[in-house]
Amino acid sequence: MEKSAQIFISGTYEDLKEERHTVINNLNKLDNAKPVTMEYTGSNPESTLASSLKLIEKSDIFICIIAHRYGNVPGGHEKSITELEYMKASELKIPILIYITAISKEDTKYKNVEQDHTKMKKLDDFKNYLNELHTITTYSSPDDLASKVILDIKNQKLIQFVLDKSKSDFRFKEETDIIYIYRTFLAQQYRSITIFRDKSFELKDIYITLSLELNPMIWHGMGETEFIRMKKDGELPERYLEVMEMTASVHKSRVDKNLYKGSHDNELSIDDVLKASNRAVILGEAGSGKTTLFHHLIATYRDDGKKYIPVFLPIRYWLNCELCDPLDAFCKMLKEKYYKFPSNYTNALNKKLV
After folding, report:
1. Confidence of residue 81 (pLDDT cuts 50, 70, 90)
2. Do 35 and 146 meet the contact criterion of CB atoms below 8 Å apart?
3. For the segment 56-72, what is each residue's pLDDT rounded down to a tens digit?
4. Residue 286 above 80 pLDDT?
5. Of 24, 75, 206, 232, which has the highest C-beta tally within 10 A?
6. Taking a C-beta distance cutoff of 8 angstroms, is the pair 294, 312 a contact?
């Protein structure tokens, strides 16, 4: 019998019935995926907590859904069942996906909002803790939640990942799996862009990437006569000559491979630039989209394990480090939690990059 990835669904029950049900129905439509939840386990002589922790031990992926209730705190414990389930998944180092409602307390039914002040504080602390260690995804409805869960699992190839490893081999090992963990983090960090205050879009669905005109004479509105004169007199900037050499190489490759088929054949895409050159600099005014372009490139090349390991180092931070080695500066950013990369993996990633 073909093995399925066991996906544990964690979260309070009464207030999240519809969300849990919708996620389970959508997971059941995936190949090789088996959702696991406490509500379908039936009667058990063990406590709810003991039963759920045993299920997590047998699970491959952990999904945590959080709204405005902290949930039941079992006897002898100070944390809720949901938080204890999360702690167990963290201990086992299985992939964890966190989803928190974007719906305000005011727009949530009174009975679905925590009223106990002690529990309210614990819920806020739990959310803050998760925000420190994970890239959080928010959802606005059960259907929105389910679509984002499915998208994350597919984009991060989690089912493929767990099925490609034996059970004894699966738990994350710092040395062998750290780049996978880092790429998974990048997928969540840069996959979407917020345009309105509470509305985000998948970057790949709306982003129109920049392109480079192959004719260097129009790069700065330069006329043909002026361009020919400057080239002849050796007055063209060195970066012009480098880009001209690269575009000529790409043009020849396209001709050789018969790739000219459309109306944009006089343009060079960012993909073409990166394939043709080991270095590229994007220059532009403030607000022209340089950072968004780089986020797009990170999301695009995060699976290109053979050539690229994306690293995003803002120049302002590099300057604060007195222009030290860029990778050292990036690792320092990780340690200072500039990004929300899980702190328990920071040292391993530092070693791998440096």
Report:
1. very high
2. no
3. 998 989 999 999 999 99
4. no
5. 24
6. yes
How far CA 304 is from CA of 292, 296, 299, 344, in Å, comes to 19, 14, 10, 24
pLDDT at residue 280, as a whole number: 73
**DSSP 3-state of 193:** strand
Band of the pLDDT at 221, cuts 50, 70, 90? low
Q: How far is Cα 61 from Cα 76, in angstroms, rounded to an integer?
A: 27
Distance CA 93, CA 114 (A): 30
Better-scored residue on pLDDT, 127 or 277: 127
Structure-block tokens of residue 215 = 């004719």
Residue 244 amino acid letter: M
Distance CA 109, CA 95 (A): 32
pLDDT higher for 244 or 285?
Answer: 285
**Considering only the top CATH level, what class is 5-171?**
alpha beta
Amino acid at 65: I
Summarised one tens digit per residue, pLDDT across range 117-153 is: 999 999 999 998 888 778 889 999 999 999 999 988 8
Q: Which two tokens stand for residue 60?
A: 């491959």
Contacts 24+ apart (CB under 8 A), 170-174: 170/60, 170/94, 171/92, 171/93, 171/94, 172/93, 172/94, 174/345, 174/347, 174/348
Q: Do the Cβ atoms of 159 and 153 come closer than 8 Å?
A: yes
CB burial class (10 A; 0-12, 13-18, 19+) of residue 101?
A: buried
Q: Which of 138, 124, 146 is nearest to 188 (CA)?
A: 138
Residue 192's region, left for phi above 0, alpha for psi from -120 to 50, else beta, is: beta
pTM, rounded to two decimals? 0.54
The Cα 3–Cα 101 span in angstroms is 32
Residue partners of 269: CB distance under 8 A and separation at least 6:
209, 211, 212
Give the number of other CB atoms < 10 A from CB of residue 163.
16
What was the pLDDT predicted at 175? 44
